[in-house]
Amino acid sequence: MQNAQSEYCFYSFGFIYDEYNIPLSNALVEIYDKDIRQDKMLGRVNTDAKGFYSFRFIGQAADPEYKGPDVFLKVYPSGIQNMHVKSKIWFNVKEFTTIDFKIDNTEIKPLNEFDLLSDSLSGPVPPQYMNEIWETFTDDDVNFIAGESYLTETSVRALLSSFKFAKITNRNLRLSQFKNIPNKLLAAFFYGLLSEGIPNNIEKIESMQKETIRSTIKRAVDKNIISGRILLSL
After folding, report:
1. 155 CA to centre of own chain
2. What structural domains and CATH numbers belong to the chain?
3. DSSP 3-state helix, strand, coil percentages of the chain (rounded to 5)?
């Protein structure tokens, strides 16, 4: 049934996330108009570096609707048209509609604690001092960063220790079971252990059983303290 809404411009926009709640950059996103017997593609775009996308289409581009277009997304995480995932249908969308989508169709969680806190370091710690601070931080450094960033001293100490342990691991052949993990993800790994009460001691962590490490990290992931991506490396 044709109505005045078919003349309107519609804007659909949002963020695309992977299964670990990380924004997906350069993912190919297609938007479709859903009808009872057919689907009509309305547009195609790639997400930006922060996982954001946006579409604009005229109501007439969609088939005549009773109230408004019914749309769904197809997302190609690798950025090319091979394996894709399909969203639910958003019925009777308005002129401006936010459609955030996680590729495993589960709940989108807030940014995990580790990534949120590590992003906070960029303010009080200039980039040229970051590596030095990670390796040789003092109580005064912890106090200063906590004051500048409004983080607790406990969180700052755990965060700096995590990056320090990651750097030690990358230089230490004895910790070979963790050698292939990227540096920031490895720091998240250590932060997850420390957040679960594991002693702030690299030698004790090194001596832990693999099953204990994995179960501890799994608890930290379930609490959204660190990204679940780390589980792929254990």
Report:
1. 20
2. 4-102 (2.60.40.3330), 113-233 (no CATH)
3. 40, 20, 40
DSSP code of 112?
Answer: P
The kind and range of the H/E element at 38 are none
pLDDT mean by block of 10 residues, the chain; 234 residues: 57 91 91 86 91 83 65 84 84 90 89 87 79 86 88 89 84 57 83 90 83 92 89 76
Buried b (16+ CB within 10 A) or exposed e, 205-226: beeeeeeebeebbbebbeebbb
Are residues 28 and 70 in contact, defined by beta-carbon separation less than 8 angstroms?
no
What value, to the nearest 5°, has the Cα angle with vertex 175 and ends 171 and 176? 95
Cα separation, 99 vs 139, in Å, equals 45
Q: Which amino acid is at 189?
A: F
10 Å Cβ neighbour count for 138?
A: 10
Gap between the Cα atoms of 192 and 186, Å rounded: 10
